[in-house]
Design goal:
Largest sheet: 5 strands, mixed
Helix content: 55-70%
Number of helices: 9
Bound molecules: adenosine-5'-diphosphate
Structural class: alpha+beta
Strand content: 5-15%
């Protein structure tokens, strides 16, 4: 204990004693004088100055003793009910400050302590477990980013070294330069996705709602892949209900559609088929993106919305496992729903449900 905390404790004890002294002095003086005056009247006894002086001295000593007794009893009560619980909470909070998020406080007995302490302890434990899971997410995220960056960076380094060789044939030079460009594009795509995800997670982007035709937006997004489906002979089938107006953030939603389309094309073999359908009811618009691609197992399906998860490692170079995490985040912000049905070797169908009007929040 430092000198200043000791001084504080002494001053607090004196203050408490003084408060008890005032209360006891007031009560004892009032009751004694009332008692004495009633007694002297009823017995018709005249009180002398000496009598009064002795009574005053005795009353004063009485007040002093009672105040000491009350202060001591109050100190013991505090020790048992308040100080023990606050000591636990303070030392746990100090551990959190030092970065130990595993600390938890066990509840205090509600017989000895105020029940409010258990409420504080409950909140504290919830806060500690939230902090601990945020910390795990953060460290996992950093580990994943560093891991994902390593491959393109080593491609750039290796091909950069090869480019330095003198008298390199023109063909190899172009090939190495292309590999470097592809790797740097992958890096920049990953960074863009990480930035988008971070901004969405920190809720710095709030939906800027506008009313628009969802069918038109879906067709515009799908058309961006025209060169892909033509080059790979992929059949396109669309079933789009007309005039489905929704009030939503168009920019955010186009991120969802382009990720779903790009996956559908990426995981579908040449000559396959991608189907887009849009239907609606009074409250929701329902979009389905199906493909006849490789599909995924139930185990894979359970993880696809996690950051950096890539089920099909043979196509790992074509993505970074952030696309569906972004999609899920956007759908969550819009209070919508996304699910996937898939059969390995037959294809997958992603179904997105969006409320036609968004809550103002
Ligand atoms: P990426 O496509 O960059 O790998 P995503 O987050 O978009 O990352 O997808 C995560 C994983 O989900 C993919 O690696 C793949 O295994 C699986 N996946 C997504 N869409 C499909 C699909 N249409 N067909 C089969 N698997 C898919």
């Amino acid at each position: 204990m430092t000198v200043s905390t000791f001084k504080h404790k002494v001053l607090r004890a004196i203050y408490r004693y003084f408060m008890f002294f005032l209360i006891v002095a007031f009560l004892v003086t009032c009751t004694t004088s009332l008692f004495v005056s009633v007694l002297s009247e009823s017995l018709d006894v005249e009180l002398t100055g000496d009598n009064l002086q002795t009574a005053a001295k005795l009353t004063f000593l009485n007040v002093l003793a009672l105040s000491i007794l009350f202060t001591a009893m109050d100190a013991i009560r505090r020790k048992l009910t308040t100080e023990r619980a606050t000591k636990h909470i303070t030392s746990a909070a100090q551990q959190i400050v030092q970065g130990n998020f595993d600390v938890r406080i066990s509840p205090v007995s509600s017989f000895s302590a105020d029940d409010n302490y258990n409420e504080i302890i409950d909140c504290f434990n919830t806060m500690a477990s939230e902090l601990s899971s945020v910390e795990t997410l953060r460290t996992d995220f950093i580990a994943n980013v560093s891991h994902e960056m390593k491959t393109p960076l080593s491609v750039i380094r290796n091909y950069g070294k090869l480019l330095q060789k003198p008298a390199l044939p023109e063909e190899s030079r172009v090939e190495y330069a292309r590999a470097i460009t592809d790797a740097s594009l992958r890096l920049s795509d990953m960074m863009t996705n990480i930035l988008k995800l971070t901004r969405l997670e920190n809720q710095q982007i709030y939906p800027k709602t506008e009313t628009y035709d969802l069918g038109e937006q879906l067709c515009e997004c799908l058309l961006q892949y025209e060169t892909v489906w033509e080059a790979r002979d992929i059949e396109i089938d669309t079933d789009i209900e007309e005039n489905v107006q929704i009030c939503a953030d168009a920019e955010l939603l186009s991120l969802v559609w382009s990720n779903l389309f790009s996956n559908a094309f990426k995981f579908t073999e040449n000559g396959g088929k991608v189907t887009l359908s849009l239907s609606s009811d009074e409250h929701c618009a329902i979009v389905k993106v199906s493909d006849t691609g490789c599909g995924m197992s139930a185990e894979m399906g359970a993880h696809i919305f996690e950051k950096f998860y890539q089920g099909d490692t043979s196509r790992a170079t074509q993505g970074n496992g952030l696309g569906l995490a972004l999609v899920k985040r956007v759908i969550d912000i819009m209070q919508g729903d996304i699910c996937v049905e898939s059969v390995v070797g037959e294809g997958s169908t992603f179904t997105v449900k969006i409320r036609r009007t968004q809550d103002e929040s």
